[in-house]
């Protein structure tokens, strides 16, 4: 999925940053647990949302992690693509200086696979 033309906004109301601005996205990476059964209700994974570090500098602006507007925008983006936005922020220690880490559930993974014909 080419997300390089997409941007999301932050509202600065997260626990790790008070900066409200537009963040340009680079790419997504999805990994899931080793159980590949589509019907497994316990299936889970990780979504990494890579962003353009020229539009968000973690060292100056803090982590995007917990920003409610960014998460809402991401859910809306996936929903517009027909991907069930069964996502939420993962733990703080999984965040990085160039991506936001999120937990994904089975509904997201099923629709992600369908979207990518996997």
* Secondary structure tally: strands: 5
Instruction: Outline the low-pLDDT stretches.
Output: none
Mean pLDDT: 90
Total helical elements:
3
Q: What is the rounded Rg?
A: 14 Å
Outline the biggest β-sheet.
5 strands, antiparallel
Strand order of the largest sheet: 1-2-3-5-4
Q: How many structural domains are formed by the residues?
A: 1
Mass-distribution shape: globular
Q: Can you give a write-up of this model?
A:
This protein is of the alpha+beta class. It has one domain. Helix content is 24%, strand content 25%. It contains three helices and five strands; from the N terminus they run βββααββα. It has a five-stranded antiparallel β-sheet. The longest helix has 13 residues, at 68-80. The radius of gyration is 14 Å and the shape is globular. It starts with 6 loop residues before the first strand and ends with a helix. The model has no long low-confidence stretch (mean pLDDT 90).
């Amino acid at each position: 999925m080419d997300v390089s033309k997409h941007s999301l906004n932050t509202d600065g109301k997260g626990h790790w940053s008070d900066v409200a601005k537009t963040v340009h996205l680079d790419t997504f990476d999805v990994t899931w647990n080793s159980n590949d059964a589509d019907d497994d209700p316990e299936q889970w994974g990780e979504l990494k949302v890579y962003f353009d570090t020229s539009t968000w500098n973690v060292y100056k602006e803090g982590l995007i992690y917990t920003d409610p507007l960014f998460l809402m925008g991401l859910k809306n983006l996936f929903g517009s693509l027909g991907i069930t936005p069964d996502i939420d922020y993962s733990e703080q220690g999984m965040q990085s200086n160039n991506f936001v880490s999120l937990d994904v559930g089975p509904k997201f993974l099923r629709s992600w696979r369908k979207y990518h014909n996997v």
